[in-house]
Every structure is written in C-alpha cells, then in structure tokens.
Amino acid sequence: QVQLQESGPGLVKPSETLSLTCDVSGYSISSGYYWGWIRQPPGKGLEWIGSIYHSGSTYYNPSLKSRVTISVDTSKNQFSLKLISVTAADTAVYYCARVVPAPMAAGYWGQGTLVTVSS
Amino acid sequence: DIQMTQSPSSLSASVGDRVTITCRASQSISSNLNWYQQKPGKAPNLLIYAASSLQSGVPSRFSGSGSGTDFTLTISSLQPEDFATYYCQQSYSTSYSFGQGTKLEIK
Q1: Are B65 and B52 contacting, i.e. CB atoms less than 8 angstroms apart?
Q2: Averaged pLDDT, groups of 10, chain B, 107 residues long
C-alpha cells in the first residue's frame, strides 16, 4: 500500500522560504509516476503547485513557477517542495501526492500539513 | 489560464437521490478532466479520471461524462458517506486547475 507523509515547519515568517518533504513508503519513486504538491488555503479550494518525475523533469503551475522548486531524492525515496518569498497568502494545508501520468490525476495523497505564514 | 467553474456551489439532497454536478472549462480541454471527493479534515480522494474512467475501488454509483468544455459527475443513488465536497480538475494545461468545489449536504 502506497503511503505518503509530509513533514516540515508549521510556521514560516513572511519573505522566508517554505520547505516541505514528502516521504514515500510502499512504492519506489524510481519505478515511475509523477509526484506532486497541491495546497488548500483554510476553508478554500485546491491549487496545484507542481509535479516531478523520478528522472527530475518538472511541471509547475505558471502562477507559482517563479517561486517554486520541486526536487526528488530517489535514494531516500522522498521528494521536496521549496517556495520562496512567502506571504500570508501562502498559508495553506500542503498535500503531497502520487500522480498518474496522462490523466495527471492524484491517486494517492498524504494526510496534509498546515503551514502558516506569520511573523 | 484555464478556468474551471462548477455548479452548483452547494446542493442539498437526500439519501437515495440521483445527483448531478456540472463542471465547465473556459476553453476546450478534450477529456482531460478528473473528479475528486473531499471530506472535512481529509485529503481529497480521486473518483473519476479522464472524464469517465472510474478509479479502482470507487463505487459504481459514481460516473462521469463529457468532453470539450462541459462535464458532469453523477451519483446514481446517494449514500450517507457521499455527503462531501466535490472538485473537478483539468489536466490539459500545466496549471492543472481545480473548480471551486460543490458542497453536497444532507437535506
């Protein structure tokens, strides 16, 4: 059974960098699929941040592309998100997910982690 | 950027009802449309991918249809566990944008 678990600071100061890691168990990242990050501000809808293939090729949401980096570490079977220059608008629950290529559908999700941007 | 608009934004229905939720794209997205269900405090759950393909393990009372700009998610006979928020998501452009959600409540 594939399981994903997000980890990282729950509080980030404005203008600083948000960094999260997703640990994957039950499946080797190197075996395929895309691996993605999706966020949800409190009480609001979902926003796709970006995704990465095990080879390192990435797709980023154009609205966030200038601030986002997603990377993968196959040796640790994990992938990571960095979002620079955060503001209060980046406060959200951040989910990591395994993404099926072609339909680009997120079939397995982590439980999500709340990141608050505040001084 | 492709905008996804769902209707209605909220819906009240009873157990056993047939329910349809609509999703409209601002431009043609072919069949690149996925549907998710989200319950409070939980991660979304994939129901339908590529407009009409049922995800493994999802009950057959869920179905999807449409292509181009107009899509529907139908629940043939509502069960108590189906009361949740539903989101569509386009996978045609790399924004992979979602609709604003449809909250399905018990009447």
Answers
A1: yes
A2: 97 97 98 98 98 97 98 97 97 95 95
